[in-house]
Design brief:
Distance between the termini of chain B: 30 Å
Order of helices and strands of chain B: HHHHHHHHHHH
Number of helices of chain B: 11
Largest sheet of chain B: none
Number of strands of chain B: 0
Strand content of chain A: 25-35%
Distance between the termini of chain A: 34 Å
Largest sheet of chain A: 6 strands, mixed
Oligomer: heterodimer
Number of strands of chain A: 13
Strand content of chain B: under 5%
Shape of chain A: globular
Helix content of chain A: 25-40%
Structural class of chain B: mainly alpha
Strand order of the largest sheet of chain A: 5-6-7-3-8-9
Largest interface: A-B, 46 and 31 residues
Chain lengths: 334, 258
């Protein structure tokens, strides 16, 4: 994918608020002690985090955990009960108009008039922003280039979703807030969207990404806040979270010949060796796979069909909340 | 607040124009209201004008022919149909679809879309009313309005009153279905009091009194007076202005963007 999502050439324009004068000090997003209730339901309870410029920050959790409420407060769509929110130092409620010039938003729900054409919607949204991105490049990156003459109602669900991602980025925002960006996308479209986001970030855009896809968070995010029942239960890099879930890994393989298990059990990395049909499953820590394969090779035993299982964000979620994501989603309201 | 070196906003001239253009496209592509508001009014005008009995002056109608009586009624009718087809329903569906919510995350105020819709409808009304006036004068030999200023003012107040009522319906209705129901429940009685189904002049006195205080009844009277007489009396104009102000206030008070 060759894309350049850049503000159109506009020599006089300073493209990055804060990029020249204050390269380091100020976080792009700063949220402190955010709390939001709907009646007796506490949707968000004392959430604090800050996101640096150019960072991809994930908010991960089951439906109803408070992810959407958090970002909707962050962009000024909802008023928090308490807490402070700053986007590039500005309060999104008090400074709505200015904040909306450098933010781009993709909401979870939302449609457009059935009988407008895709290109007409894009051109209109583009005209809202002072330094917009190049529409053809954005549309091309998400496979909508040949849909610009189509009516909105003729788009598939996935195409509508991709259009809403395009519209979130059409103002060449400094901060993009994407709520369940790839829900409903097929695997190829999902990868295209991920590539586009990485590309947009490489241009300095800060991304606030709400997702309940573990794979998406692992692939894209620099840091992830794991939210459950309105609270942040963990905040770390995806690898850090996964490592926190469990220290152990496992290696699974088919040996080319029978061998003495003590070959492996005496290795410091190995904690257990089990048989599973023709497979051997070795559990342990550290550089487990290397240690196992080297030891067996030295004994003249080959290994086939090797699979390494490291713990994932999914494991981290289970470990930190005591529930599986899909269990948490049952009965949760969104 | 730290002073951010944000570049000054470039003029968004064009953003509002794009909104108006898209609303015009939508009206053109979903022409039911335009067809009803413009087409039916013109069709009835021509049919009534071709019925010889409708061209005979009638003493019960103050010496005017039924055709002449119907011209202002059809004008008020087309204003009402265009205003009510395009204002409450689509606006509520914009809210249902999250279009207003999405707009409120852009630098552009969400009410611009409302202003854009009103401009498109006002243009449709101007074209329709100009056609009704022109056809009446050119094809049916009706004398030109004697108080053009009064006519324009009456029409403007009628449009303002109906927009305000339409916006109030949009504010109160939670779903576009409910908006359509409220719209019908408001529109048909208003049309009755305008004299569309039967000339108000021939109805019992108390119905005529009520009619004077309904938006379309007052509008029809103001338009007729401007056409055949002098500047319309204050009463009708004040009734229309009161509707515009009261419902404008209610709409503003109760309107929700999401």
């Amino acid at each position: 994918m060759q894309t350049a999502v850049t503000p159109e050439s506009d020599p006089g324009a300073s493209m990055a608020p804060g990029s020249e004068a204050k390269p380091t000090s100020q976080p792009a997003v700063a949220i402190e002690h955010l709390r939001k209730t709907y009646g007796s339901l506490v949707a968000v309870d004392d959430v604090s985090f800050s996101v640096s410029e150019g960072e991809i920050f994930g908010i991960l959790g089951p439906n109803g955990a408070g992810k959407t409420t958090t970002v909707e407060c962050a962009i000024g769509l909802r008023s928090p009960d308490s807490g402070t929110i700053r986007l590039m130092g500005l309060d999104p409620h008090a400074d709505k108009a200015r904040v909306h010039e450098f933010t781009g938003v993709q909401l979870q729900s939302g449609a457009f008039p059935a009988k407008l054409r895709v290109g007409e919607i894009m051109d209109m949204y583009r005209s809202f922003y002072p330094h917009p991105a190049d529409v053809s490049e954005l549309a091309g990156a998400l496979g909508l280039a040949d849909k610009r003459k189509s009516y909105y109602r003729s788009l598939s669900g996935g195409q509508q979703q991709r259009l809403s991602v395009v519209l979130a980025l059409i103002g060449a925002p400094r901060i993009a807030v994407l709520d369940e960006m790839t829900t409903g996308l097929d695997p190829q479209a999902r990868r295209d969207a991920w590539e586009l986001i990485e590309h947009v970030r490489s241009r300095g855009t800060t991304i606030l990404l709400v997702t309940h896809f573990m794979e998406e968070a692992e692939r894209l995010c620099d840091r992830v806040a794991l939210i459950d029942s309105g609270r942040i239960v963990a905040l770390d890099t995806p690898a850090g979270l996964a490592a926190r879930a469990t220290g152990s890994k496992s290696v699974r393989f088919i040996p080319s010949a029978p061998f003495d298990e003590s070959l492996l059990t005496r290795l410091p990395e190995v904690t257990a060796v089990e048989h599973d049909g023709r497979h051997i499953v070795v559990s342990g820590t550290g550089e487990l796979a290397t240690a196992v394969i080297v030891a067996l090779h030295a004994a003249g035993v080959g290994t086939q069909d090797v699979r390494i299982d490291a713990s994932t964000l999914e494991d981290a979620f289970v470990r930190l909340t005591g529930r599986h994501m899909h269990e948490a989603e049952d009965g949760a309201e969104s | 607040m730290s002073a951010l070196p944000l570049s000054p906003p470039r003029s968004r001239r064009g953003a509002f124009g794009n909104m108006v253009l898209n609303e015009a496209r939508l009206a053109w592509r979903q022409p039911a209201g335009m067809v009803a508001g413009t087409g039916i009014a013109l069709l009835l005008l021509v049919i009534f004008g071709e019925i010889p009995a409708f061209r005979q002056p009638s003493s019960g109608l103050g010496g005017y022919s039924p055709f002449e009586i119907y011209i202002p009624i059809l004008m008020a009718f087309s204003i009402a149909i265009i205003a009510f087809t395009y204002l409450p329903g689509p606006l509520v569906s914009y809210r249902e679809l999250g279009i207003l919510r999405r707009l409120s995350t852009t630098p552009v105020p969400a009410y611009w879309v409302l202003a854009a819709q009103m401009i498109v409808q006002a243009c449709a009304m101007v074209v329709t009313l100009a056609l009704v006036v022109a056809v009446s004068i050119v094809f049916f030999g009706i004398p030109a309005p004697r108080s053009p200023a009064g006519l324009v003012l009456s029409i403007a107040l009628c449009v303002a009153a109906l927009f305000a009522i339409g916006l109030t319906i949009a504010a109160l209705a939670r779903t576009s279905g409910a908006a359509r129901g409220l719209m019908a429940a408001t529109l048909y009685p208003m049309l009755f009091f305008s004299g569309l189904y039967y000339p108000v002049q021939l109805m019992p006195a108390f119905i005529q009194d009520i009619s004077d205080y309904t938006p379309l009844g007052a509008a029809v009277k103001a338009i007729s007076d401007s056409w055949v007489g002098e500047f319309p009396p204050a009463q009708q104009l004040l009734v229309l202005l009161a509707y515009a102000l009261v419902f404008g206030f209610l709409a503003r008070r109760f309107f929700r963007w999401e």
